[in-house]
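During the practical work, I selected for study one protein's amino acid sequence and its C-alpha cells, as given directly below:
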Amino acid sequence: MTDRTTRRWVLARYVEGAPSPEDFRLEECPLPDLEDGRFLARVILASVDPGIRSRLSAGDSYAAAMKLGEGIDGFNVAEVIESRNPNYAVGELICAGGGWREHIVSDGRGYIQKITDRRVELGCWIGVLGVPGLTAWFGLNRVGQAKAGETLLVTSAAGPVGATAGHLGKALGMRVVGTAGSAAKCDWLTHDEGFDAAIDYKAETDLTAAIQAACPDGVDVLFDNVGNAMIDRVLPLMRMRGRIVVSGQVADYNLSPDQVPGIHNTKPFITHRVRMEGLVVFDDIRAFAGAQAAMADMIVLGSLKYRIEEFQGIDALPQAFCGLFRGENFGRRLVRLAPDPKVF
C-alpha cells in the first residue's frame, strides 16, 4: 500500500436551515495503489452546486440523503496522472462527478466524460457545457418546447442555469425577461447578456406587478430555479398553453418540508391549459454530446456567453458553496485546485 495521501471534504453534521462551513470537515486519507482497470486523476477544478443541498439534511429528497462522513458531491475537471485502465490514458482530461476532493480514483464507471474540445476553457465543461448548461438546454428545448416569438421568464437569471437559459432563448428568437437579486446583476443581464428586461426582486415592493409590466402579453415559458412561491406568483400571468419548467428550488432547499410554501393558483392549469414539468438532466444523458457540441459552437461564435467565479484552493469549497444560499454568486462558482495543463 502506498503512503501517498489526498484530501477531501465530508459531511460533518446534518444541515439545518442555511448551510455553514462548520457543516463540513476536511479529511486527509490515503491514496490506494491502483488495481487493474482503475486510474488516478488529479482534480483541476471542482464545482459547488446548489442542488446538493437537498441531500445534506437527514431526510431523503429526490436523491438519498448523504451519510455523516460521506464525501461531498460535485463535478470536477481532472487530468489522468496514472492508469491501469486501457480506456483512460495518462494526460487525458475528463469531467466527472468526483466531488470536493484533490484526486479521483475510478474504474471508469459512473458519470465520466473525456474532454477533447479545447476551443473553450476547461471550466465550461462543468459549467455552461456541464450539468448547469445542459439543464438549461434540455429544460428549455425538451421540457419547455420554447419557440421564436414567445416570452420567456427566467428566475435566478444571473446563475449559470438561468443565464444559459436566457441566452438560448434569445438564440431561438424569444423575448427574455429575468429576475435576479441585485441591481448589478440586473444591469449585467440587460447590458452584457442581452436580456430584454431584468427585475431586481429584492428592490420591488410589488414583484407580481413588476413581472406583469415586463411581460405585458403574459408568459409563455417560465423557467424557474427558485421554488413554489415564485411559481405560484407567475401562474396567473401564464399565457394559453404556457409551460413551466421546474429546474431548481433554491429558495426552498433550506426549508423543512412543513415550511415549503404551497401552490395555490392552480386554476390556470385548467383555464389556460398550463403544463408544469420538472427535469433531472441525467434523463437526457444520451443526448449530452450533441447538445455540448452545439453549445460549444455557439460559444466560439459568440452567441452563447457565460460567467465563471473562480475561487482558489481546496479550503475555499465550503465558503463558496454556502455563499450560493446568501445570493452572492454571480455566474458559475468553481474552485481551482491545480493549474490547467498546457495545450500543445
In short: The helical segments are 131-143, 160-172, 183-192, 207-214, 228-234, 267-271, 288-301, 317-323. DSSP finds eight helices and 15 strands in the chain.
